[in-house]
Design brief:
- The chain has 246 residues and is of the alpha/beta class.
- The chain has a domain at 5-147 and 170-187 and 237-244: 3-Layer(aba) Sandwich (Rossmann fold).
- The protein is built from eight helices and seven strands.
- The protein has helices spanning 5-16, 26-42, 58-66, 79-88, 123-131, 151-159, 194-203, 218-226; strands at residues 48-52, 71-76, 93-96, 108-114, 134-145, 181-191, 232-244.
- It has a seven-stranded mixed sheet, sandwiched between helices.
- Strand 1 (48-52), helix 3 (58-66) and strand 2 form a beta-alpha-beta unit.
- The longest helix has 17 residues, at 26-42.
- The chain starts with a helix and ends with a strand.
């Protein structure tokens, strides 16, 4: 496991959200569905599949349906997330591991990862590392939020003079030069108000601030949220990309 305190705090946040995650992640489910559908168009019969950053199993569930005869392994750094996945899908093998360090986990026909790559320190390097764990003829398919994601909250906070603090997403072109096929799509979600949006972020474990960001003063944040009692839209801008084995 990665001993970096910043990464440890991310793992702890997702661990704490294991029980609430499924109820608060419809957008993540939609992205997982798009990812598996993309992979199914390019790889019809993988024998072995690795779900990286599997969480509670959104991608694993869809992969089991799409490829019921494949051997599926789920990898995540958060033990409570993996426990939740095992409770739902006991037939799935699990590995507790930092996804940036796959040494010793073997090679797979199909590697899938959804909504996790941006949490790693070097997303581009991680892609190259993951690609090295494909079996000959294998395929890597990844869904990652990029710059432009959650722009509604960033704009809203900026107009009030508050630093939004959200995690920094990689640019749309972060995989340039790797030979990836990339499609950019928006995945919107609507919440009852801005306060519910922030609660959903926390309840899904995705609320960690980017390194160096200063927390917004509690009073200023309360006043900001009080301004928005109307429905609040938040959009994830997703890069759906695929890479063939070297």
């Amino acid at each position: 496991m990665n001993s970096d305190p910043a990464n440890a705090s991310i793992v702890a946040a997702f661990d704490a959200a294991a029980q609430s995650y499924d109820a608060l992640t419809q957008v993540q489910r939609d992205v997982a569905r798009a990812l598996v559908a993309r992979a199914a168009k390019e790889f019809f019969a993988p024998r072995t599949i690795l779900d990286l950053g599997a969480g509670t199993g959104h991608v694993s569930e869809l992969a089991l349906r799409q490829w019921p005869h494949a051997e599926l392994t789920a990898l995540d750094a958060a033990p409570a997330m993996l426990a939740r996945l095992r409770a739902k899908f006991p037939q799935v093998a699990t590995i507790r591991r930092d996804a940036a360090r796959l040494d010793g986990v073997g090679r797979y026909d199909l590697i899938l990862s959804s909504m996790m790559l941006h949490w790693l320190d070097a997303p581009r390097d991680a892609l190259a590392h993951w690609r090295g764990h494909l079996a000959p003829g294998g395929l890597l398919c990844v869904a990652a939020p990029v710059v432009g994601s959650l722009r509604e909250w960033r704009d809203f906070a900026r107009t009030a003079g508050i630093e939004d603090g959200l995690w920094a997403f990689p640019p749309e072109d972060f995989a340039d030069g790797l030979g990836a096929t990339v499609e950019i799509s928006d995945f919107p979600a609507e919440y009852r108000d801005a306060r519910v949006f922030l609660r959903a972020l926390k309840g899904s474990g995705a609320h960690k601030s980017r390194p160096g960001a200063l927390p917004a003063p509690a009073g200023a944040l309360r006043r900001l949220l009080a301004q928005r009692s109307d429905p609040f839209k938040a959009t994830f801008r997703i890069a759906l990309l695929s890479l063939q084995a070297d």
